[in-house]
Amino acid sequence: MKCKFVALVLGIAMVITSLAGCGSESTKESDSVSSSTENSKEQQDTEAEVVEGIPVDHFAGTELDIAIVRRDALDPSEDFNEKPIIKLVEEATGIHVNWTVIDGSVASERVSALLASEDLPDAMLGLVSSSVLATSPSLFYDFSKEGLLETYAPDVIKDYQEGGQNCLELITWPDGSIRSLVGNVGCDYKSEGNGIMMINQKWLDAVNKEVPTTADEFYDVLCAFRDNDANGNGDPDDEIPLSFCHNDWAAWFMQFANSWGIAGKGSENKEHYMMLKDGIVEPTMDTQAYRDFLEYFHKLAEEGLLDIEGFSQTVEQYDTKQAENRVGIMLEWEPPVDLADDYVAMRPFKVDGYETVKTGGKNYCYGNLTALVASAECSNVEALLHWWNYMSSTPELKWTARYGEEGVCWYKDENGEFWRYSTPPEELGLDPNIQYTFYQAIGNTASPYLTPADVNTEDGVRKRMMDQVYDLILDEYIPTRLSDPLAVEERTFIETDLFEMVESFMATSVVNGVTDESWATYLDNLKTYQYYDWIDWWQGYVDGEY
Hints:
Elements: E1 63-70, H1 84-93, E2 96-103, H2 107-115, E3 123-125, H3 130-135, H4 148-152, H5 154-162, H6 167-170, E4 181-185, E5 196-200, H7 201-206, H8 215-227, E6 240-243, E7 274-277, E8 280-283, H9 288-302, H10 315-323, E9 327-332, E10 343-345, E11 358-361, E12 368-374, H11 381-391, H12 395-402, E13 410-412, E14 418-420, H13 437-440, E15 449-450, H14 461-469, E16 473-474, H15 485-512, H16 516-528, H17 531-542
Parallel strand pairs: 1-2, 1-3, 4-15, 6-9, 11-16
Antiparallel strand pairs: 3-12, 4-12, 5-9, 5-10, 7-8, 13-14
C-alpha cells in the first residue's frame, strides 16, 4: 500500500538514533479502523469491535510494504524475508512483507526523500524521528482508536502493562494520540545504575584499610593511597587516588554528589541539575548541598587526591591510567577485564546531614519508543498490528527478532533463561570472528519490546556491583517520553549557554575553591542564564504540557 501526501516535509531534519521515533495522527474522517483490503470481508468492519481470539492466520494472503533500516554494514542480507524471524512470522500468519531496506549510512538522506515523495510504505521500522512525527502528524496513523491495540496487539499491550514501565503512557502524546510502538530492550537491571564508584581492594589491603563508608573515611583512604605506594610498583608518586572522566559516558563528575543527596537518572552532569520529588522538579545547582560538595572536592584536589584532569582527559587517557594500575577509586561501568578481580563496588559514602542516593533509575525504560510506525493510509493496520503482535507473542520470537536464530545466536537453558552465544557454536562451522548476529536479526531498534522477564540478569562483575548499590538508586525521576520538538527546541536553546556556565563554575570551584563572592556571582548567573526557566520547562514536561 502506498500513502499519498503533499511534499511538505522537505528539509525536515531526520534523527536516526537508537531511539529513532515516529507516530501518527489518525484519519479521523474515516469511520473504519483502517482502510481495508477488498478481498477480506472480515476486515471491512465500520466499527473498531474488540474481537477475542483472532486466528493466527486470519490475515493470510495479506501483503504489507515495510521500510526498515539496515543498522550495520556487516549485515549483507539481500532479502529480509530470509531472516529467521520473518520466515517464522510469515509461516504462521500468512502475511507477506515487501521490504524496502535502507542502509544506516545513508538513512537520513533516504528517509527524507521517502517522506517527501508521493509514495510511503504501509509501515516503517526504526526509521522516522519523533520530530517528524510531531511536525507532520497527518502522515502517520494514530493507534489510539478505541479497541484497536487491544484487539490486534493484545500481547504487545500485556507487555506494556507488565514490563516494568507504563510504556503506553510513554508513547502517548499530549493530544492523546499514539503514533508509534515500543521496541528493543525495555528495562535492564544491570544498566539501571549507570556509572558505579569502585575501589581497588588490593590497594586497600596494601594500606590496611577497609572500604570507606563516611566522608572522613573516604578522605583517609585517599591519603593512604597517595602516601604508601598502594599499587606496589616501587614508585611512591604514580598513584592516582581518585579519578573520573567527562568524556566517558559512565564516569561524569556529578555522580560523586550522590553522597550529598544529589542524583540523576543518567550519568551525565546535566542529569543531576534537577531532581523530581513527589512530582515536583526541584533545582539542585543552587543548593547548600551542591556548595558543600564542591568545597569537599576542592579539598581533595588541593591535596593531590583527585585527578583534576578528569574534566578534560580523553577516554583513552582514562583507560590507560586504569590499565597501568594507577587508579585507586574511579567511576566506571565495570572495571577493566585484566583488573576485574581487583575492584569492588563502593556505595556513595555518608555525609552528615544528607541522605545518600545513587545515580540511576529503577525500572528505567531503555526501549526505542518509536520502533514501529504506520502511514496514515496504511492498507491494513489490523494486519500490521497482528504481524507485529505475533512477533511479540513469546520470548523466543522476540529473541529471534532481536538477536537471531535459536541455537545459532542464543539458547535457552534448563531454567528457562535466555543466553546469547559470544561466538557461534563450533558444530555449526561458522567463522567465530564474524558478526553473525547481523545476518540473523532485524536490528535492535526495529525489534519488538523485550520486558525484564524476557532478559536474564546473568551473574558477573557488573551484576554483583549493581547488587551492592541498587537500593540507593532513584525510584522517582524525570520520565523519558515523546514530546513536542518545538518545545524541546526552546529548552535546548537555554541549555547551550547555561550548561557551559555551570560546567565552568564547577571545574573552577573544584580547582580553585568556592568563596562567598564567587558563589553569589554564580547564583546571579543562574538567573541570567535562565536556570529557573529551564526548571519550569521540565515541570511542564512532567505535567504533560508538551
